[in-house]
Amino acid sequence: MAHFKLVVSDPTGKSSSREIKDILAQPLLGSRIGDVLDSSIIGVNPGKMKITGGSDKSGAPMRADVHGGVKKYVLLSKGVGMKNNLEGARVRKLIRGNLITEEIYQLNCSLIEGILPTDQVKKGEESPNNTVSKESAKK
């Protein structure tokens, strides 16, 4: 079954990471980079999010202009997967396509509308689900 590490970021620069697997990950299979999804289908707060990229289990980055879910060697001069900043340099690199398959490990998303999910609460702060008061947390 599918197992993803989902990293969702909002326009202010904050990000949240969570692992989704099995039934929650099924709606993501078959979608592509650039697709806008309803974030409630994967258990995140209601809103919309856009898939911006990701990487597979071996670390090969996903690239929007490579079609399909395959790995292939592509001649790159700039963009995702290319770090060389020499003028006119071109390098053949191993890149993953733009289709989300079961081989994808990390999936990056950008929140378009809605609230960023907060899974972790800093020490000493209260969460809405936490009934422990600050005095008892200090003990």
Quantity of strands, as a count: 7
Estimate the mean pLDDT confidence: 80
Overall geometry comes to globular
Give the low-pLDDT segments. 120-139
N/C terminus separation:
43 Å
Number of domains: 1
Biggest sheet features: 5 strands, mixed
Number of helices: 1
State the secondary-structure class: mainly beta
Spatial strand order of the main sheet: 2-1-7-4-3
Radius of gyration: 18 Å
Helical content, roughly? Answer: under 10%
SSE order, as H and E? EEEEEEEH
In percent terms, what proportion of residues is strand?
Answer: 35-45%
Task: Provide tags for this entry.
single chain, 139 residues, mainly beta, 5-stranded mixed sheet, two-stranded antiparallel sheet, 7 strands, 36% strand, disordered C terminus
Description:
- With 139 residues, the chain is mainly beta.
- The protein has one domain.
- Helix content is 4%, strand content 36%.
- It has one helix and seven strands, in the order βββββββα.
- It has one helix at 134-138, and strands at 3-9, 15-21, 36-38, 47-56, 71-76, 91-96, 104-114.
- The chain has a five-stranded mixed beta sheet, with no helix packed on it. The protein has a two-stranded antiparallel sheet with strand order 5-6.
- It is globular and about 45 Å long.
